[in-house]
Design brief:
Distance between the termini: 68 Å
Number of strands: 6
Number of helices: 5
Strand order of the largest sheet: 1-2-3
Shape: elongated
Number of domains: 2
Radius of gyration: 23 Å
Structural class: alpha+beta
């Protein structure tokens, strides 16, 4: 790590701390030549292998823009999309791999998007999973209905008037 003050190619780590989200490390450094102190933030790189074989850095923005199209006209905010992109990135990082296929990113989007908005989920899944007929939609909708049937009902709270 080059010193930002004197450009000395060496520095000494004096302190290391993990960030609150656990995805990066903040290091306090000191230059042995000029004595200047500075901080660095280190994150593990996460690369995406595209279908064409091209490798590029993972981007939450790309996740958000891809999902935004499916959410068009739905009650989904930019904050919701940012949270979804963060969930997707965290799930991918938990695999422990530094490179992931673009297809795996699409699969990891499906779960959080389904929880966020089922209509947007169907739109995204229809493109991502290349639905070819109405039967593909019927199958996906039947799965959503079956999951709803097996979902426990919320506990009724005080003041709920259920008749």
């Amino acid at each position: 790590m080059h010193c930002p003050f004197c450009r000395n190619p060496d520095s000494r780590v004096i302190d290391s701390r993990t960030s609150d989200d656990g995805l990066s490390i903040r290091r306090r450094r000191q230059c042995p030549k000029c004595g200047g102190r500075f901080s660095t933030v280190e994150t593990a790189s996460l690369n995406v292998i595209k279908r064409s074989g091209v490798v590029e850095p993972f981007s939450r923005e790309k996740v958000m823009s891809g999902v935004r199209k499916a959410c068009q006209g739905r009650p989904v905010t930019d904050a919701d999309l940012a949270m979804l992109a963060q969930q997707v990135e965290e799930a991918i990082r938990q695999t422990g791999s530094s490179q992931i296929d673009a297809n795996e990113i699409g699969l990891s989007i499906l779960g959080p998007l389904r929880e966020l908005d089922e209509v947007a989920y169907l739109r995204f899944a229809s493109v991502y999973q290349a639905f070819e007929s109405l039967d593909d939609f019927d199958t996906a909708i039947a799965q959503l209905r079956a999951d709803h049937a097996h979902r426990p009902l919320p506990a009724s709270g005080a003041g709920d008037d259920v008749q």
